[in-house]
């Protein structure tokens, strides 16, 4: 099995979730079916390889989804490590990454771009979903959702069926806990009762098989996400446009 990078740290407290609940996303359309397009080029740009930088890479994916520019995920990770209180340990917290974006913005990657972070590409307000319905309605409304959850051994090998790759259901045996991972959700499908994630483990096409380089767009069953949220999962959505 490839040495995929894990690096999401579970919160030490839940004050951020309690202070900024996703109240405005509690209700929405009865049926949610939407995919938020993410450029194939960003699948390769936001490849964390085997580093523990999933938080910074998935958050940068979300910013690209919203702003349609490319951002410096390694810079964001370095900024997080200056603030997260665990400078000598790998990984960081999802909340810290969004604190950086709120305080100083993000750093764009393009020829001629400033090497300083730009507040225009930061965030003003972000909220925390605690239910599947809040995540469903957020994506349907056009918001990418970054999740930070536990990651189990059998989640490393999604199953290919009906033309899609699938993580296990929430009632399946998913093996032992390997660590924490952060990943973007950019699709909601009530038809399949699942979200989808492009992940940050490299670009891949439909010929991908478990064990090969890269990672496919993968369906995340609602039942699995419910389980992961109950454990110690987080799901953040930027609501500047609401």
Key words describing this protein structure:
single chain; 242 residues; alpha+beta; Cathepsin B, Chain A; 6-stranded mixed beta sheet; 4-stranded antiparallel beta sheet; 7 helices; 10 strands
Provide a descriptive summary of the structure in words.
It is a single chain. With 242 residues, the chain is of the alpha+beta class. It has one domain (15-238): Alpha-Beta Complex (Cathepsin B, Chain A), CATH 3.90.70.10. It contains 7 helices and 10 strands. It has helices at residues 15-19, 40-45, 54-67, 73-83, 94-104, 132-140, 222-231, and strands spanning 33-35, 126-128, 145-152, 159-161, 164-166, 177-185, 187-189, 194-197, 218-221, 234-238. Strands 1-7-8-9-5-4 form a 6-stranded mixed beta sheet. The longest helix has 14 residues, at 54-67. The chain starts with 14 loop residues before the first helix and ends with a strand. The model has no long low-confidence stretch (mean pLDDT 90).
Itemize the secondary structure elements and their pairings.
Layout: H1 15-19, E1 33-35, H2 40-45, H3 54-67, H4 73-83, H5 94-104, E2 126-128, H6 132-140, E3 145-152, E4 159-161, E5 164-166, E6 177-185, E7 187-189, E8 194-197, E9 218-221, H7 222-231, E10 234-238
Parallel strand pairs: 5-9
Antiparallel strand pairs: 1-7, 2-10, 3-6, 3-10, 4-5, 7-8, 8-9
């Amino acid at each position: 099995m490839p040495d995929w990078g894990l690096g999401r740290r579970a919160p030490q407290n839940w004050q951020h979730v309690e202070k900024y609940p996703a109240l405005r996303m509690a209700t929405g359309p009865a049926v949610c079916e939407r995919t938020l397009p993410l450029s194939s080029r960003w699948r390769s740009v936001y490849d964390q390889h085997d580093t523990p930088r999933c938080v910074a890479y998935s958050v940068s994916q979300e910013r690209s989804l919203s702003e349609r520019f490319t951002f410096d995920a390694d810079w964001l990770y370095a900024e997080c490590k200056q603030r997260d209180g665990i400078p000598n340990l790998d990984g960081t917290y999802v909340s810290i990454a969004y604190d950086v974006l709120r305080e100083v913005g993000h750093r764009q990657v393009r020829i001629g771009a400033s090497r300083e972070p730009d507040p225009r590409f930061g965030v003003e307000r972000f909220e925390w979903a605690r239910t599947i319905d809040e995540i469903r309605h957020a994506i349907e409304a056009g918001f990418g959702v970054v999740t930070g959850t536990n990651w189990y051994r059998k989640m490393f090998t999604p199953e290919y069926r009906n033309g899609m790759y699938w993580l296990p259901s929430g009632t399946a045996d998913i093996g032992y806990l390997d660590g924490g991972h952060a990943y973007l959700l950019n699709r909601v499908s009530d038809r399949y009762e699942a979200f989808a994630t492009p992940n940050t483990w490299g670009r891949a096409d439909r010929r991908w098989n478990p064990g090969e380089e890269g990672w496919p767009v993968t369906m995340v069953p609602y039942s699995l996400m419910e389980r992961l949220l109950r454990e110690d999962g987080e799901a953040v959505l930027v609501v500047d446009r609401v």
